[in-house]
Design brief:
Elements lengths: L1 H28 L4 H6 L6 H11 L5 H13 L13 H36 L4 H15 L2 H15 L22 H7 L3 H19 L1 H18 L3 H8 L4 H38 L5 H11 L2 H29 L1 H4 L3
Length: 337
């Protein structure tokens, strides 16, 4: 197992290098100068612009800027934000819990709904429940997040007035960040169930929108995997012994069918961490995605470089953890590695 972990970590090094290079170059292809944006419409004297560019290191050749960035990153220093003057790591740490909390809520409901949908579709194969559920999953997988989010806002927030439109909690509640996860911090602050419920109300729509694509992917993978398992010899043997169909499905087949689903769930978690950009922007959710969008608008190079690199590291670690867990669940793979 240790050899597999080391191999996965070594394979991740070129990936992270490539991501850092692409992020570094792509942000510099966007028109606009961060110094001119900082100075505003009136700008400043050419001497002031030159001095600020020198202080920020923007007058160096691109390769020198990149090697300086990577050298500091390898030492754990991602630089400071051009706008806030705070270390990039501190800004990331302040916002990352909000993204994790939203992604975890989206993944939770997508798993609780997606797996039963896939099981029902497989059991009722080629019948109306199968056609209905798989059609719904296809629609959900194809749904543009920004359009789906606006539809839900119009229905739940504007027409019914059931959920807030933006933010993590009402301004009436004073939540002191401790863990960064508001579902935990409201209890420490003494806000009780009222604060917890208010947090859930704010989280409902963003989590629903963000989890739409994962629930479709999990449902389709569960159906496909379960149908494949139901064709195995041991399933036919169980049928010959007189076991009921539902006992065969839920006691014997489903356990093995969930092995590839675990991989999809892990990959979906990585996708949610990065795919939260549109959702966070749409619902003004103060997470990493919205932070990166604001950094693009401000041409905040250190934030974008460091933020994208940190997100890439998180996704790589999640994928490695999923690989290790999959090997643990599937004993047949242990001897092959």
């Amino acid at each position: 197992m240790g050899r597999v972990l080391i191999k996965r970590l070594l394979n991740a090094v070129p990936t992270l290098f490539g991501v850092s290079l692409v992020a570094f170059l792509m942000i510099r292809l966007i028109p606009g100068d961060p110094v001119l944006l900082m100075l505003g419409e009136r700008g400043g004297s050419p001497e002031l612009v030159t001095e600020m560019r020198h202080n920020l290191g923007l007058d160096l050749p691109l390769y020198s800027q990149y090697f300086q960035f990577m050298g500091r990153a390898l030492r754990g220093d991602l630089g400071e934000s051009i706008i806030s003057k705070r270390p990039v790591w501190n800004e990331f740490a302040d916002r990352f819990p909000a993204t994790v909390e939203l992604s975890a809520a989206a993944l939770l409901w997508s798993v609780l709904l997606g797996i039963p949908m896939g099981v029902i579709a497989a059991v009722k194969r080629r019948r109306w429940p199968d056609h209905l559920l798989m059609s719904a999953s296809l629609i959900g997988y194809s749904m543009p997040i920004f359009w789906w989010g606006l539809i839900l806002i119009m229905f739940f927030s504007v027409r019914l007035g059931l959920t807030p439109v933006s933010g993590r909690i009402s301004a009436l509640y004073d939540v002191e960040p401790w863990t960064g996860f508001y579902l935990i911090d409201v209890w420490r602050r003494g806000l009780g169930f009222a604060g917890f419920w208010e947090t859930l109300r704010h989280m409902f729509l963003p989590a629903l929108v963000l989890g739409t694509i994962p629930v479709a992917a999990i449902a389709r993978m569960t159906r496909s995997s379960l149908l494949e398992v139901l064709r195995e010899d041991y399933v036919r043997t169980a049928k010959a012994k007189g076991l009921s169909f539902y006992r065969i499905v839920f006691v014997h087949a489903l356990k093995n069918a969930l092995l590839p689903v675990v991989t999809v769930i892990g990959l979906m978690l990585g996708t949610l961490l990065t795919g939260a950009v549109l959702t966070e922007t749409l619902f003004s959710w103060p997470g990493v995605g919205r932070w990166l969008v604001a950094s693009v608008q401000a041409r905040d190079y250190p934030v974008l470089q460091g933020g994208v690199l940190l997100l890439s590291v998180m996704i790589v670690l999640v994928n490695i953890a999923v690989d290790i867990y999959y090997i643990y669940l599937n004993p047949r793979l242990r001897g092959a590695l």
